[in-house]
């Protein structure tokens, strides 16, 4: 039986069980149930998925490096999502359309688009073709592509926590945080009203560790990367 944490009646949590052992993740495409993305494994080695693509407008904030953001985007592609990247550093994301092109037989894939940080018309999402929009706009991102329809998820990539990002962070259905310096961990504690032990945990995470934070959710996990992803992304790391 798979249990999920719920937020306002919708799945936004981490599923503590999955249908494959973590040791098999290197032999398969990293996918999950409908809308579920395998993100890593728990402290006991159990595979964990996040319900990132769902039948409600969804916001996810990533606090960390490009490695984590690109891995989430790759895994959304693996479950059939459209992926639109709005960024001021397009060269840092070129591996994504290349990976999609390889899956499409070498031809450019229309499922992955890299855009400038300015409003554009987005593909219309649906249950069969969900949409992941990645806003890579620095520590104080503009809300250029807020999720307004079911099956659209907007991911905000924050290289570090900034006080002016508190509103974006508070509006998120889920936050994925890598290791934070002491000052940023204190800011995180103020934003999400974290107790001291959780604040300290954020400062001691290893490079391959992430905390999933949401309403009634605090779940440390370890990132798991397949050999194909390692070729594209390099080793697991905290920074860009």
Structural account:
This protein starts with 5 loop residues before the first strand and ends in a 7-residue tail after the last helix. Helices cover 22% and strands 26% of the residues. The chain is globular. The chain has six helices and 13 strands. It has helices at residues 66-78, 95-103, 166-170, 182-192, 196-203, 227-233; strands at residues 6-7, 10-11, 14-15, 36-41, 47-51, 58-63, 82-87, 112-115, 131-136, 152-158, 174-177, 209-214, 217-223. The chain has an eleven-stranded mixed beta sheet, with helices on both faces.
Task: Please outline what is shown here.
This protein is an alpha/beta fold.
Largest sheet: 11 strands, mixed
String of helices and strands: EEEEEEHEHEEEHEHHEEH
Q: What is the number of strand segments?
A: 13
Structural class: alpha/beta
**Overall pLDDT, averaged?**
82
Major beta sheet, strand line-up = 3-5-4-13-12-11-6-10-9-7-8
The 3D shape can be described as: globular
Number of helices: 6
Measured as a percent range, the helix fraction is 10-25%
Strand content: 25-35%
Distance between the amino and carboxyl termini: 37 Å
Low-confidence stretches: 1-33
- Report Rg: 17 Å
């Amino acid at each position: 039986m798979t249990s999920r944490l719920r937020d306002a009646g919708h799945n936004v949590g981490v599923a503590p069980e999955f249908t494959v052992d973590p040791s098999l993740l290197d032999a398969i495409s990293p996918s999950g149930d409908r809308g579920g993305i395998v993100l890593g494994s728990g402290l006991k080695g159990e595979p964990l998925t996040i319900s990132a693509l769902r039948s409600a407008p969804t916001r996810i904030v990533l606090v960390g490096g490009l490695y984590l953001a690109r891995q989430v985007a790759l895994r959304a592609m693996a479950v059939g999502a459209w992926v639109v990247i709005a960024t001021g550093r397009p060269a840092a994301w070129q591996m994504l359309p290349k990976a999609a092109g390889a899956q499409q037989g070498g031809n450019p894939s229309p499922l992955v688009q890299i855009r400038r940080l300015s409003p554009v018309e987005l593909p219309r999402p649906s249950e069969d073709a969900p949409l992941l929009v990645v806003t890579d706009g620095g520590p104080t991102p503009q809300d250029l592509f807020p999720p307004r329809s079911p099956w659209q998820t907007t991911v905000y990539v924050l290289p570090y926590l900034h006080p002016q990002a508190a509103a974006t962070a508070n509006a998120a259905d889920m936050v994925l945080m890598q290791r934070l310096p002491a000052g940023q961990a204190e800011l995180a504690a103020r934003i999400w009203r974290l107790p001291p032990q959780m604040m300290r945990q954020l400062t001691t995470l290893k490079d391959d560790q992430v905390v999933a934070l949401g309403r009634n959710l605090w779940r440390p996990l370890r990132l798991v990367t397949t050999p194909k992803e390692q070729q594209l992304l390099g080793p697991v790391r905290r920074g860009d």
